[in-house]
Amino acid sequence: MKIKFWGVRGSIPSPGPKTVRYGGNTTCIYIETDEGEHIILDAGTGIFPLAHTLLSKLPLKCHIFLTHTHWDHIQGLPFFVPIFIPGNVIDIYGAFDLVTNRNLKDVLSRQMDYTYFPVREAELKAEIKYHVLHERQTINIGSTKVTNVLMNHPVLNFGYRIDNNGKSMFFTGDNEPLYNIYDPADDFYGEYEKLMAQKNNMIFELIQGVDVLIADAAYTDEEYKMKRGWGHGTHSSCIEMSKVVRPSALYLTHHEPTRSDDDLEKIYQNINVPSGDTSYFLAKEGLEIIL
Amino acid sequence: MKDVQQNMLKMAEGMPAFPKSVHRVLELTSDINCDAKELVRVIEHDPVLILKILKLVNSASFGLYQKITSINHAVVYLGLNTVKNLAIITATIGVLPRKNKAGLEMDQFLLHSLATAAIAKILASKMGVPDADLFDYFLAGLLHDIGKVVFAQFVPNKYKTALDNAIKKEIPLYESERAAVGADHCQMGSMVAAKWQLPASLVDCIREHHGDTGENISDQRLSDYLFIANQVSKELKIGFAGESLLDEIPDRIAKRFGKNLQEIIAFIGDISGEVDKALVFIKN
Fold first, then answer.
1. A111, A201, B124, B250: which has the highest count of C-beta atoms within 10 A?
2. Same domain, yes or no, for B154 and B265?
3. B82 and B115, same domain (yes or no)
4. CB of A26 within 8 A of CB of A14?
5. Does residue B38 lie in a domain region?
6. Confidence class for position B4, pLDDT limits 50, 70, 90
7. Confidence check: pLDDT of A58 > 90
8. Which residues of B touch A135 (CB under 8 A)?
């Protein structure tokens, strides 16, 4: 399969001279399977330039898996041109919103309400199918399997594992490593540790040994001190994750919008990369991985 | 009568939580740096809040891979912000009135529930139940009488009759409930717990907390401990949930403990500290 980054930025698009090398679009990853199926992970603003490359493949059948519905992961969706073209079939997958008790269609349609967008969801010409995923549900697209697992973010966030033809990748979506809310002296500290271990084991069991791991590395360790609980990982937390998962390659993504290309590379130079079989990269708009 | 129960089950969806915890949830969650530990503590001491949050996270439409059995578990699994927002939507429904037409005093009810929860947990701990399971005992105690709240809230006039008759005729409350309401609080509580996807062990022990109905019990130990904890808290008169008659202890349960009720009370020891802790969740 081929994996290509179309958006690697977190929170808000950040165009400008300081982000030209890594790109300013928010999260969007495109996967083309060996059999030619189109899978898109997240619909940040990166999905807009991606859309134009897909116009040569009409009628288009594609599958969009949303890690979660924060703006930076869905904002490109109304601008995904294939949704306006009859004959296209677009399957969109994501979690049920249990706080507002809304299914995926309701959640996504709202950003196309009259107040926010000139075209209503009901007016879209493509056939759009919404699928609410249960945790650990596997979707079969031809012989390709897409399996989700719940990660840790201020809203429900699925990480997705994709298996195609013996190759595999996992994208965390937005994810902060779990931390204990109790102090070691508290009664519940031990219980909480166990629950965290159980949850982590469940995630690691699913993603163990994938070829490519793409992970949320929004913050430096220093920044994280002020941003604990905001739902993002750090460069070093991703490295720690990769030590367990042991992928062939780890791609760090969800770059902070204020981070310049130079800053990003400086951070990369200073990352304490362990020796081993895993290669480490910064995710970059336009970068393609062929597995 | 089945219809009436189904109707109550539906109405229970909109049941508000207890005043103090609603107030605390709204207070805690108005701060962007919401105190996670305190929020968990508040939710875990309100039978309505915890039941509703566990219901939401375990709902079939959401479809989690694992059953969530405590609020700490929910925080680990879904994150603090999601749990916080679930608490807010539950808290903003309103508050259970401290007094209702049925005459069930809610402060006293909550004290009885919290005391039973604490006693079940202490007893289990002293009897060597592993720490990891103790929360289930606490939760069983906290939720065992939840059916009474549903009755008091949604069929207050009939429930007043049930409460009055139990005292006047010196009969078990569950008997006068069956006569007045058509179901008892064990049935109602376990129905709510089952409908709301709580673990079978909890559903069963709520159903069985006044004695065996002959139905299968998935966790006999939990069920037996809850039975005893309820008797202890009634005997010690900590709080009041509409009944003071003690139930006869079935042979099986007596055998498990090898002690009579007074000996069990002595074995549990002083719980005044626990009662003080419980009062924090009641008084303003």
1. B124
2. yes
3. no
4. no
5. yes
6. confident
7. yes
8. 63-65
Residues 6+ apart with CB under 8 A from A67: A27, A41, A42, A73, A94, A151, A157, A158, A159, A160, A171, A172, A173, A174
Is residue B110 situated within a structural domain? yes
- Closest chain B C-alpha to A63 CA, distance in angstroms: 21
A181 touches chain B (CB under 8 A): yes
Are A99 and B72 within 8 A, CB to CB? no
- Tell me, what's the ipTM? 0.94
Whether residue B28 sits in one domain with residue B146: no
Q: How far is B1 from chain A (nearest CA, A)?
A: 30
- Per DSSP bridges, beta strands A288-290 and A2-7 are antiparallel
Residue B1, pLDDT above cutoff 70: no
For A133-155, give the DSSP string: PPTT-EEEETTEEEEEEE--SSS
Q: For B128-144, how does the pLDDT look when each residue is reduced to its tens digit (9 = 90+)?
A: 999 889 999 999 999 99
pLDDT average, residue stretch A49-60: 97
Same domain, B85 and B131: no
Q: Is A31 exposed, middle or buried (0-12, 13-18, 19+ CB in 10 A)?
A: buried
Residue B77 and residue B73: Cα distance in Å, rounded? 6
* pLDDT band for position A230 (cuts 50, 70, 90): very high
pLDDT of residue B284: 65
* pLDDT band (50, 70, 90) for residue A73: very high
With tokens 């969706």, the residue in question is: A77
Residue B198 lies in a domain: yes
- Mean pLDDT for chain A? 97
Q: Using CB atoms, which residue from B62, B81, B89 is nearest to A154?
A: B81
A134 close contact with B: CB closer than 8 A: yes
B262: three-class secondary structure by DSSP: helix
What does the pLDDT average to over A70-89? Answer: 98
| Cβ-proximal residues to B65 (8 Å cutoff; 6+ apart), any chain | A134, A135, A136, A149, A150, A202
Residue matched to tokens 């919290």 = B114
Residue of A nearest to B77 (CA): A199
Q: How many domains does chain B have?
A: 2
On whether residue B11 sits in a domain, the answer given is: no
Q: How many CB atoms lie within 10 A of CB B33?
A: 6
- B206: domain range? 106-279
Asked if residue A271 has pLDDT above 90, the reply is no
Q: pLDDT, tens digit, for every residue of B172-186?
A: 999 999 999 999 999
